[in-house]
């Protein structure tokens, strides 16, 4: 382990016109603050949560999308190592003191994505992109933690920035969920319309969630994600189907047509 050497991963994703595919490019930025210059060095990078007593500076600065596009397409070879993942550059490289070097992590890959609108009470309607890091979907390499910038081509062909998010270390065959921002034309309002104490440790609530779609010609589905406090809960009735995700979370999928308001009503029993 060389002190003063830090690295991080960065990603650029370009969404297709129909927003169903994502072209993903990745590179690593390596920052040398060790006080030494390394000529024709063999480069190995370890990704994972490694415990170190004295913590070094976290991340260097990248040079942005233009530099990523221009860099040579030299990918790393990846393999498991202890409880981490080791990325080895299959050629030597040189790194001067105080230099930041960017090297392609893997060849750009195209993968299917799902665009989701997510509403959590008290917040704006979020825009998420989700994809599976699998070989079947064109990926399948363990992805080091880093920032993902997402772009889309405008009608004139220019790339426009649509959002960015950080991802954790992501093993193969796991889902990646990117929060890109909030939907301008979608609105949600959540209200508890009634609350009743059934016994010392049990109460019931009637919840109303109003969803409005101000898009002119696009119907949407909004995923309403509700966090239920307490030890246990039970949905007693609902006017939309739901799925219990875990001990404290339930999700409803609500379709909303253009210029329409739809109301989700449900009653929940909560045990504290």
The global form is elongated
Order of helices and strands: EEEHEEEEEEEEEEEEEEE
Distance linking N and C termini: 50 Å
Number of helices: 1
Tally of strands: 18
Proportion of strand residues? over 45%
Low-confidence stretches: 50-73
Mean pLDDT: 87
Could you describe the 3D structure shown?
Strands 11-8-7-14-17-16 form a 6-stranded mixed sheet, with no helix packed on it. It has a 5-stranded mixed sheet with strand order 6-2-1-9-10. Residues 50-73 have low confidence and may be disordered. The chain folds into 2 domains: 5-182, no CATH class; 186-271, Immunoglobulin-like (Sandwich). The N and C termini lie far apart (50 Å). It is mainly β. Helices cover 2% and strands 61% of the residues. The protein contains 1 helix and 18 strands. It is elongated and about 70 Å long.
